[in-house]
């Protein structure tokens, strides 16, 4: 793994559809990410505060209307996030 992580990594399993890139580049997304991270105060699985991602609880692909909904988002550190998707949660 090099320095690039998460959604900005082109090898990220979640894919890099234009839709996803557009969302992640938007001001709305950055705003909601800041709010969710502040709400959770770190990874909700292990409490880590390093390399935090915001994860879509209901699939990004299957529930477009929930993409920016704070209740559908949770803060995970990178290892917990990968683990979650490795277990079969769809991105
Ligand atoms: Zn964690
Ligand atoms: Zn995720």
How would you sum up this structure in a few lines?
The chain has 91 residues and is of the alpha+beta class. It has 3 helices and 2 strands, in the order H-H-E-E-H.
Largest sheet: 2 strands, antiparallel
Overall mean pLDDT stands at 88
The SSE string, one letter per element, is HHEEH
Computed over alpha carbons, the radius of gyration is 12 Å
Helix/strand/pairing category = alpha+beta
Shape: globular
Give the ligands present: zinc ion
The strands making up the biggest β-sheet line up spatially as: 1-2
Unreliable runs: none
Q: What is the terminal-to-terminal distance?
A: 20 Å
Q: Residue share in helices? A: 25-40%
Number of helices: 3
DSSP strand tally: 2
Report strand %. Answer: 5-15%
Q: Tell me the domain tally.
A: 1
Describe the overall structure:
The protein is of the alpha+beta class and 91 residues long. It has one domain. Helices cover 33% and strands 11% of the residues. It has 3 helices and 2 strands, in the order ααββα. Bound molecules: zinc ion (ZN) (2 copies).
Provide the fold topology.
Blueprint: H1 18-24, H2 27-40, E1 52-56, E2 73-77, H3 78-86
Antiparallel strand pairs: 1-2
The protein binds zinc ion (ZN) (2 copies).
Residues 43, 45-46, 48, 76-77, 79-80 line the site of one zinc ion.
């Amino acid at each position: 793994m090099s320095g690039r992580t998460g959604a900005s990594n082109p090898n990220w399993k979640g894919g890099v559809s234009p839709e996803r890139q557009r969302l992640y580049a938007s001001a709305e997304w950055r705003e909601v990410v800041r709010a969710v991270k502040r709400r959770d105060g770190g990874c909700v699985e292990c409490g880590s505060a390093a390399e935090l991602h915001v994860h879509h609880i209901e699939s990004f692909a299957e529930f477009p209307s929930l993409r920016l909904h704070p209740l559908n988002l949770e803060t995970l550190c990178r290892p917990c996030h990968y683990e979650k998707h490795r277990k079969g949660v769809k991105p």
